[in-house]
Every structure is written in C-alpha cells, then in structure tokens.
Design goal:
Elements lengths: L3 H11 L3 E3 L5 E2 L5 E2 L1 E3 L8 H18 L5 E5 L4 H11 L3 E4 L12 E2 L7 E9 L3 H12 L3 E10 L3 H10 L3 E6 H10 L5 H12 L8
Parallel strand pairs: 5-6, 5-8, 8-9, 9-10
Antiparallel strand pairs: 1-4, 2-3, 6-7
Helix pairs in contact: 1-2, 1-6, 2-3, 6-7
Length: about 210
C-alpha cells in the first residue's frame, strides 16, 4: 500500500517540482551547495497533484491539530495551499506577509483573526524553518495562538529540526527528504551511489562536497 508520503514524493518527482543532481549541485541563496532543488509552486499547475496535497494537508491538520480555528498561509508560496486546505476544512483563512505593507493600514496579516484563535500556518517547503517561524511570531504578536505548522515537504536538516524544537512549535509534513530519495531510487531516478551522496548531504549540508 502506497503511503501519502511516498505518493506525494513520487508526484513531486514526476512533475519535476524536485530536481536531484548529486554530481552537479545547485547553489542556494545562502551559498550552500545542494544536490536537490525543490520548487513546490509548480504543483499549482497540476490539478490532481494540488488536490492530493490539499487533501493530505487537511487530513494531517485534522489529525494533529483538531482544535484549529484558522488556517494561515505564508506569502507567497503557502497562500494557494492554505486557501485550498481552508476550503476543505471549512475554516477562515488569512495570509502572513514577510514584512508589513508600507502603505494603507500597514498590515502584515491579511484577513481577520480573533485574539486567542488557534492557528495552523501552512508553508510549502521547510529548510531551516526560519521564514515560517518568523511568520508564526508575527501571528502570535497579532494575538493568534499558533498550534502548529504544516508543510508539503521538509529537507529534514538538523538546523531546521533544532529551530522548531527551540520555538516549541510542532511541525507536520506530507513528505520528506528521506522518503523522496528512497522513492527516487525505487523509480530509478537515481542510483545507489547517488543515494549515498544525497544521504550524506542531509547530515551536514554546510560541509557537504559532491564527489
């Protein structure tokens, strides 16, 4: 039986939302050399994939955070997924800007939240978790009670895991790096030697060098 983790991992590979290139790594904005590049925004263009993601996130949120009262999306990549999930769960939805508007009311959260309202924040992708945890801080300052974060994919980086632990905010994801590389091997997208390189990167991305 195919798990939701494996199904979404295969979907991301099939639509090329994820590229694996262990022998010719990408360079992230942070300067880190990476054998993987993930762009979950591509999922918006595939109705069946985005529906599976929305339903999967809704199911995970219902199970992990049954008390949730409002769904928030991070700008910009989390917004469409938050809208679809809020629709499935029949809940209010807001989105959180990376910085406050410099005009009008200067809002950083668009939509309406009530003081103490229990919120789940949706992000498309977790690396170190910095941006979504900042969004959670903004929401808390505005009076929300952030009960958790839900995302499509996590790189499972040690720094990201530590950041969520330090913030004391639970994280649930539809799929993850380990499942993705195993699925890629099963699908013959990569070979065993590639797998070794990919697994080494997850343990120490800042010092990882492609052989």
């Amino acid at each position: 039986m195919t798990t939701i983790e494996t199904k979404i991992a295969k979907d991301l590979l099939d639509i090329e939302a994820v590229f694996l290139s262990p022998n010719d790594p990408f360079t992230w904005a942070s300067g880190i050399k990476s054998p993987i590049y993930c762009d979950n925004r591509i999922t918006m263009s595939y109705p069946e994939v985005r529906k599976a993601i929305a339903q999967g996130l809704a199911d995970k949120i219902k199970a992990a955070y049954p008390e949730v009262e409002v769904i928030a999306g991070t700008a910009t990549a989390g917004i469409p997924h938050a809208a679809w999930v809020a629709d499935i769960l029949n809940l209010p939805m807001v989105y959180i800007r990376s910085k406050a508007k410099d005009h009008g009311k200067g809002n950083q959260i668009e939509g309406r939240i009530e003081k103490g309202q229990k919120m789940v924040v949706i992000e498309d992708l977790i690396s170190t978790g910095g941006s979504v945890l900042e969004a959670c801080e903004v929401a808390e300052r505005e009076g929300a009670d952030v009960v958790g974060v839900s995302a499509i994919f996590t790189y499972e980086l040690p720094k990201g895991l530590a950041n969520f632990e330090n913030a004391k905010i639970p994280l649930t994801t539809l799929t993850n790096y380990s499942t993705l590389v195993e699925t890629a091997l099963t699908s013959e997208y990569i070979n065993e030697a590639d797998l070794e390189l990919l697994q080494a990167w997850k343990q120490d991305p800042e010092n990882w060098i492609s052989k």
